[in-house]
Amino acid sequence: MSLPDRPITLLVCALGGEGGGVLTDWLVEAARLAGYPVQATSIPGVAQRTGATTYYLELYPVPLAQLGGRRPVFGLSPVPGALDALVSSELLETARQVGNGMASPERTLVLSSSARLLTTAERMQPGDGRADAQQLVALIQRQARAHQVFDMNALAKECGTVVSAVLLGAIAGSGLLPIERRYYEQAIGDKGAAAAASRRGFDRACALVAQHRTQAAFVEQLLQPGTPAAPAHPAAAALPAAVAALPAPVREFAALGHARLVDYQDAAYAALYLRRLDAVLQAERAADPQGAQGWAVSREMARWLALWMAFDDIVRVADLKSRASRRDRVAREVQAGEADLLRIWDHFKPGAPEFAALLPPSLAQRVLAWDRRRVAAGRDPWALPLKVGTHAVGGMLALRLLASLKWLRVRGSRYASEQAMLERWLDGVVQGTRRSWALGHEIALCGRLIKGYGATNERGKETLLHVLEHLAHGPDAAAAATAIAAVRAAALADAAGTSLDAALVRHGAPPRPVQAVPIRFVRKPKGAARQPA
């Protein structure tokens, strides 16, 4: 009998606490039950976030019973470019191993989770410091024979298990190893709630990856010469006509933005979003009629415009916290069973600005002025601490009542001020794009400055308006675009604002005005000891 000249090689990459060792034990046990010779080694590491450990497995695809007493000699560590499969629980970790040369376009199957656990360097950035997931996936596509990337962490949470069970299901569904499914299931076991949850995660991932294999084989068959084309599938959901008419690069974000604003307010508010976006698109068509730049100005505006228009307020918070999906998510996170009692307490501390946001501007100014007088007198800003049990009927009714006040939002002072600032930015993008495509693009990207809530959100808006006032209208459009790009980068790189002010001055704009901060005099408690001079 002619024997294979090499074993099947598999590298598993898991972060600390994700059960990589358990997964390796399952694989070894399944191979042992199936009668195949197998060997596994592990290399502990302290890379990336909480520690990345790699587990290397070699399996000879001939049962021991057919080897006539002979045994294969296995390697102890992976050889770059000689892997049959790379399996990873985190996208950046997958890309890191691919970058180390572990994957081969001619040989390696890559199974990876799309989930991210941000590195320390990514968390430190005031702006969006995340590695670009699209670039990571593109790297995997280039360096893999075949690949499948999906959110394994989300699937594990849905099934109430850990990601190692999902990884095992993905390996089984890929058909990489010559092991029957029943042996994987025997390795997991069937006793106890943990084993049942692991079986659920295994089953879901196995079915998902197997379905992908079937679809890929079907598509490959269709691409063969002489094969008739398959009938087109109808769209999963019809887009609004105004969204469907947009250029393809803009349509993706516009569809998401439209859906978000319908959910946030109503169809009329979403229609306002599309009219605003259309104004930007018309300006970009005038500046770049052929769309040579990929309609990047409109694409960025479709994203940041929707996020700004859906600003957070107490109505939005109440709506999100009182949704059934939120309770289901909490139940999954704490792994509550059907017989368990789940109580959810939400803590709120709305202050004068939150209440004033829903009042007409005249009344809102009075409330805010009263709160400023409190602060000037040395007292803390007024706030109302609340503890609401959303597991109870009373607490849920209170939140749903607050969430129903969408009609009041559009009559409030916060809505009026947000729309006024938003219109200034929108006009800056439109006018800038008409002058120069690059200038409009840089102003559109300034939407990244609007993030967070409270003081962080206010600082972002103040910075954006300062840029519009002092940099967007310069006589040289190219110089203005360069200046705005530099100032925006400085604002996102330095939370303290020192680099931002320096960049503003460097490009001929005044620094941001100094914000007045009240001075508080605190009376020394009676009986306090004097400090020596």
Mind explaining what this structure looks like?
There is one protein chain. With 533 residues, the protein is α/β, with parallel strands linked by helices. The strands form 2 sheets. The chain has a 6-stranded mixed β-sheet, with helices on both faces. Strands 7-8 form a two-stranded antiparallel sheet. The chain has 23 helices and 8 strands. It is 53% helix and 8% strand. Helix 2 links the parallel strand 4 and strand 5. It has a domain at 8-222: 3-Layer(aba) Sandwich (Pyruvate-ferredoxin Oxidoreductase, domain 3). Helix 1 packs across helix 7 (181-188). Mean pLDDT is 86; it is low at 229-237.
Short summary:
The protein is an alpha/beta fold and 533 residues long. Helices cover 53% and strands 8% of the residues. The chain has a domain at 8-222: 3-Layer(aba) Sandwich (Pyruvate-ferredoxin Oxidoreductase, domain 3), CATH 3.40.920.10.
> Can you name the CATH architecture of one domain?
3-Layer(aba) Sandwich
Report the portion of residues in β strands.
Answer: 5-15%
Number of strands: 8
Task: Give the strand line-up of the largest sheet.
Answer: 2-3-1-4-5-6
Q: Looking at this structure, what is the CATH superfamily of one domain?
A: Pyruvate-ferredoxin oxidoreductase, PFOR, domain III
SS class: alpha/beta
Tell me the overall shape: globular
Helix content: 40-55%
Q: Please outline the major beta sheet.
A: 6 strands, mixed
Residue windows where pLDDT falls under 50 for at least 5 positions = 229-237
CATH fold-type name of one domain? Pyruvate-ferredoxin Oxidoreductase, domain 3
- Total number of helices: 23
**How confident overall, as mean pLDDT?**
86
The N- to C-terminal Cα distance equals 95 Å
CATH classification, class level of one domain: Alpha Beta
Compute the CA-based radius of gyration. 29 Å
